[in-house]
Amino acid sequence: MDPARLERISAFAWRIPPTGAMRVPAIIYADEGLIRDMDDKVHEQASNVATLPGIVGASYAMPDAHWGYGFPIGGVAAFDPAEGGIISAGGVGFDISCGVRTLLTGKKRADIEPLKEQLADALYAAVPAGLGSTGRIRLSGQEMDAMLEGGAAWAVGQGYGRDDDLERIEEHGRMAGARADCVSERAKHRQRNEMGTLGSGNHYLEVQEVTRIYDEQAGRAFGLAQGDVVISIHCGSRGLGHQIGTEFLREMAIEDARIGIHLPDRELACAPIRSPIGERYLGAMRAGINCAFANRQIIGHLVRQALAGILPAASLDLLFDVSHNTCKVETHDIDGRRRELFVHRKGATRAFGPGDPSLSAALRDTGQPVFVGGSMGTSSWILVGTKESEARAFSSACHGAGRSMSRHQARKTWRGSDIVDELSRRGIVIRSPSMRGVAEEAPHAYKDVTAVIEATHRAGLARKVAELRPLVCIKG
Known about the structure:
eight-stranded mixed β-sheet, 16 helices, tRNA-splicing ligase RtcB, seven-stranded mixed β-sheet, alpha+beta
């Protein structure tokens, strides 16, 4: 993207002024290097989002932004139902509530190093991964509906994990307003055998070392110190979320034509929040959020079981679990007035600052942990939300490095087995059912995550706490 097309607000913020049908400006958070590396579609899609009915503030793009379906990945936008605001399936994404959960082990790198191969084998055996992967759990129709409306709380009730886990999950592990009756039988069928599985693409289960602490106070509050080992789980709502997105996008596109909503891109298909289809999508999407909460809760339980015989004294307490593909009802300040808004985050992480009442007592004084995934061979990060982020992007931050190369290009450039060998020489153990998938997720197919983190930190969206390096990675 040519920086000359943008108005520079600061070293880490750029503005696209409203033109044509844009109702608000678009704001992109990035340094100049990241801006130059962004594809022009980010400019186009962020501008297109700014044309949607009821949008308030601005259309935002995070430092990891890249081309997505309708909305850019890394896109944030909020809509006011009192002003005809809409809900967009493309603004949530197909992998509803994809997110990251991080467990503390209480162990150091020296404790783990001799056991890496054994840990990799145990985790790979315990947690199914890959395209179409299925687990050992089979849900009846009644159990499926209970899971979709109960989320992680349902999973804990079934014996998967601990009650205290729920205090460390956004929404306390259960999204209110979920409606299983708004989820199609096809979507439920796709999920029936997929609970407790990672799936494919950029999803992973990683054993990681804390290599550096940037904020000692936040690190202590999060239970992190240099040399600690943590385990991170990145996955979402699997086939169910994808099916919900596919079905409602199709239905919304037909409805938009009928009621006269004119869109610059049909991938932006949406519905008024206060409409029958909008309310049905909200019910289904919230059920998808609960599905992801339950899925990560079950995987966390499987990880604890798998490591019980290898690391018997490991604490495996939950640090936090947060999503990055959602629409949430939140109250934010717009033009000096508190308003209830529907905040879409697509490939962007909620980043509530200190004092937020939704956070558990243990985290409230510090702020919400923000997890940013790297790639198999690069750093991941733990950040913390800031108070400033509310005014800058509705309390949102980046979610990953962001792709710089398509999966097709990556497959043409690298062989998966070569990537596994290269990472092995660097002390990183990989397990995956698909060498094709490994090639698609090659570290060099992603942007420089350090640059993304620095821009996020310097822009005030979230503050750096800890850098993590992979030791073991289970890839889908």
